[in-house]
């Protein structure tokens, strides 16, 4: 359901349907109710008419029935007036007397029940409504019928019924529209904590495990779900931290055995095996160090307002790595930019990132060539080597963990560039690799400039 | 010259003590912070080499107590912890240097020598690297005992390089030391001295090389170093 995907949309759509149904059904129901009431009133009026006439029924000496109405009533029921009429029916249906000159009744189909019954039929241009009311008369029962021309039905009641629909519709529809608007606002307001929780949940990732969904203002029926998610996140984070710490602890634990191994190897008198073994221990040490750095870069968060002098950090890295480069028969240099370059970030972490780039560059640049580090005033640092460079199709892959361009080449753990990428990402920075001129790779880290220098 | 080595791993302690002995240092090795304190009460050591991960307490706590008691002996930390914050924490607590495991015994010896050569340190006045030797008192430079004739300023440069052998000496530091506040020197004055020094060392057949780290400074190292 792409259209009705969200709770809010579903509620609004269903509510709209409900409002439409109410908008149609409510006027119809009200119309039906008013119409029924009007008919009831009308039937009661007819019964009242019958009750008005009934006392004037008499039994003549010859046993025949007479109706001697007073003047006012007699004129009302006169044939010349024509709008009202009456008839008296015996049990066998015979018309005992009536207002019509031919002695017939308008409603010969009278079922003559023990309770009043009502009829209607057209007569000429108009429509006649009639009622038949049973009366005890002597030892017998007669049915007194009265009728009335529809034109004379209560005009007010009919008008109300006729006018009802449009009038009521004009009141009900705006009320329903206003109600719909209010409900939209209520739905929006009620669901706002859920919206916020959803937005927060979107930020959760492998590097952001400390996020929790907000529990304040959360509806009580959703709260258990939110709490359950938060508890799951808590367990997830604990597991993640435990795993990260385990890697770091294991790596730390390896350092002392490596130190013992190294001390023993250094005591070997024969130079050739000693050099080979020391190179191997150097490689293992690098892996151990990088495992620790991976764990650290995963835990790295930059505190707001934390700044570092990129120029000073890069210089420190070059000074730190210079002995390594020289031992390997390679040169290293840094651009002679003397001004401080302040960037947002953690100096120690940036040191690690740049050191990894320089370490890689020293490995890949051929003996006799130089690794060049350049710092730009905009908050960028570039590390160039004169090696074989990075093929274009591998440039996205190299920042993944345990990816190695040339698996047979010694010295690479496949972790260095992943650490660099992770540190740069934690800084909100950017890393890219390009060709160096005339040959080799150029890795560039760009960081966010920090304008104010910190108070030392 | 007697050093105190505090390291709880017995084999590493023995191997390190042996290496230090080969380098000419008498070494007392202990495994716990309590033993270390007892030893330091009994003897005045020239250098304390301290492992941070000790069985009875954190090495940093011991370090802090030593400094709080007013003892200024050089302290070199050995540690398996090399996190982002660890190094800073160790140096802030009063350590003079910091070496992460696994380390080259040669590096440990070199670092200890640097600590001992500091003002107030106990090591003699000679700076040596390979066959090169500089007597800091008589200002004589020799290669395989053959004297090398160099100017006082070149000797000053060489002394700074040798005091930090294997590490980069910033050019700015050399300028400040040579010329002080005087602005009366050419922008390439230090380069000229280094160039001459390098030439003379090469001509005399020295087994050391002065490297230029462009953008920072200079570094003196043995021509054929052991793999670091």
Short description:
By secondary structure, chain A is an alpha+beta fold.
Structure in words:
The complex is a heterodimer of chains A (456) and B (228). Chain A has 456 residues and is an alpha+beta fold. Chain A has helices spanning 7-53, 71-76, 155-202, 223-266, 271-299, 310-327, 347-364, 416-426; strands at 57-59, 65-67, 84-89, 95-98, 117-123, 126-137, 140-149, 307-309, 331-334, 342-344, 370-376, 380-384, 430-435, 441-446. Chain A folds into three domains: 54-152, Beta-Lactamase (2-Layer Sandwich); 206-299, Orthogonal Bundle (Helix Hairpins), CATH 1.10.287; 303-446, 2-Layer Sandwich (Heat Shock Protein 90). Mean pLDDT of chain A is 84; it is low at 407-411. Chain A is rod-shaped and about 160 Å long. Chain B has 228 residues and is α/β, with parallel strands linked by helices. In chain B, 40% of the residues lie in helices and 23% in strands. Chain B has eight helices and twelve strands. In chain B, helix 6 crosses helix 8. The longest helix of chain B is centred in the C-terminal third of the chain and has 15 residues, at 189-203. The A-B interface holds A 248, 252-253, 255-256, 258-264, 266-267, 275, 278-279, 281-282, 285, 289, 292, 296, 315, 318-319, 322-324, 326-327, 331-336, 346, 348-349, 352, 373 and B 9, 11-12, 15-16, 18-19, 80-85, 88, 100-106, 166-168, 170, 209, 211, 213-217, 219, 221, 225-228.
């Amino acid at each position: 359901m792409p259209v009705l995907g969200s709770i809010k949309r579903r509620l609004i759509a269903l509510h709209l349907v409900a409002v439409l149904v109410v908008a149609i059904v409510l006027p119809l129901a009200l119309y039906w109710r008013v119409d029924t009431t009007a008919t009831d009133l009308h039937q009661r009026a007819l019964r009242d008419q019958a009750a008005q006439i009934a006392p004037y029924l008499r039994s003549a000496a010859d046993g025949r029935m007479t109706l001697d109405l007073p003047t006012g009533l007699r004129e009302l029921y006169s044939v010349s007036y024509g709008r009202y009429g009456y008839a008296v029916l015996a049990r066998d249906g015979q018309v005992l007397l009536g207002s019509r000159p031919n002695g017939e009744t308008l409603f010969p189909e009278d079922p003559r029940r023990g309770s009043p019954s009502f009829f209607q039929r057209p007569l000429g241009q108009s429509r006649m409504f009639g009622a038949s009311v049973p009366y005890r008369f002597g030892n017998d029962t007669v049915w007194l019928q009265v009728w009335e021309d529809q034109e004379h039905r209560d005009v007010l009641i009919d008008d109300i019924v006729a006018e009802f629909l449009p009038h009521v519709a004009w009141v009900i529809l705006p009320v329903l529209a206003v109600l719909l608007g209010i409900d939209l606002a209520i739905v929006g307001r009620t669901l706002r904590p859920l919206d916020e929780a959803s937005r927060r949940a979107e930020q959760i990732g492998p590097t952001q495990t400390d996020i929790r969904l907000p529990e304040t203002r959360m509806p009580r029926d959703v709260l258990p779900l939110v709490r359950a998610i938060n508890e799951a996140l808590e367990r997830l984070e604990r597991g993640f931290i435990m795993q990260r710490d385990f890697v770091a602890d294991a790596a730390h634990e390896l350092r002392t055995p490596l130190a013992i191994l190294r001390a023993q190897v250094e005591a070997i008198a024969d130079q050739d095996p000693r050099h080979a073994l020391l190179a191997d221990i150097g490689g293992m040490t690098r892996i151990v160090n990088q495992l620790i750095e991976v764990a650290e870069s995963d835990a790295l968060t930059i505190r707001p307002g934390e700044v570092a002098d990129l120029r000073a950090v890069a210089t420190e890295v070059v000074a730190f790595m210079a002995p390594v480069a020289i031992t390997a028969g390679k040169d290293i240099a840094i651009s002679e930019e003397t001004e401080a370059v302040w960037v947002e970030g953690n100096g120690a972490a940036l040191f690690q990132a740049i050191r990894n780039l320089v370490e890689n560059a020293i490995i890949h640049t051929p003996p006799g060539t130089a690794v060049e580090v350049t710092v730009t005033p905009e908050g960028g640092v570039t590390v160039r080597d004169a090696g074989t460079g990075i093929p274009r199709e591998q440039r996205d892959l190299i920042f993944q963990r345990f990816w190695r361009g040339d698996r047979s080449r010694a010295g690479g753990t496949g972790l260095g560039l992943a650490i660099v990428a992770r540190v740069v990402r934690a800084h909100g920075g950017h890393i890219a690799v390009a060709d160096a001129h005339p040959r080799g790779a150029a890795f560039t880290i760009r960081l966010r400039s920090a304008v104010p220098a910190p108070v030392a | 010259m007697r050093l105190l080595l505090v390291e709880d791993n017995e084999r590493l302690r023995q191997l390190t003590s042996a290496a230090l002995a080969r380098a000419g240092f008498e070494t007392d090795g202990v495994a716990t912070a309590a033993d270390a304190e007892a030893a330091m009460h009994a003897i005045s050591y020239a250098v304390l080499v301290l492992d941070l991960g000790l069985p009875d307490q954190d090495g940093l706590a011991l370090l802090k107590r030593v400094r709080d008691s007013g003892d200024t002996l050089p302290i070199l930390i050995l540690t398996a912890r090399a996190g982002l914050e660890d190094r800073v924490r160790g140096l802030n607590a009063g350590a003079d240097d910091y070496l992460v495991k696994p380390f080259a015994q040669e590096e440990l010896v070199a670092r200890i020598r640097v600590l001992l050569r500091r003002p107030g340190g106990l090591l003699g006045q000679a700076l040596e690297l390979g066959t090169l030797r500089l007597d800091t008192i008589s200002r004589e430079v020799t290669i395989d005992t053959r004297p090398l004739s160099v100017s006082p300023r070149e000797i000053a440069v060489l002394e700074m390089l040798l005091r930090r052998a294997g590490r980069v000496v910033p050019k700015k530091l050399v300028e400040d030391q040579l010329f002080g506040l005087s602005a009366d020197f050419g922008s390439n004055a230090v380069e000229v001295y280094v160039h001459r020094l390098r030439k003379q060392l090469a001509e005399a057949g020295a087994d050391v090389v002065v490297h230029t780290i462009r953008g920072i400074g200079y570094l003196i190292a043995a021509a054929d170093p052991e793999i670091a």
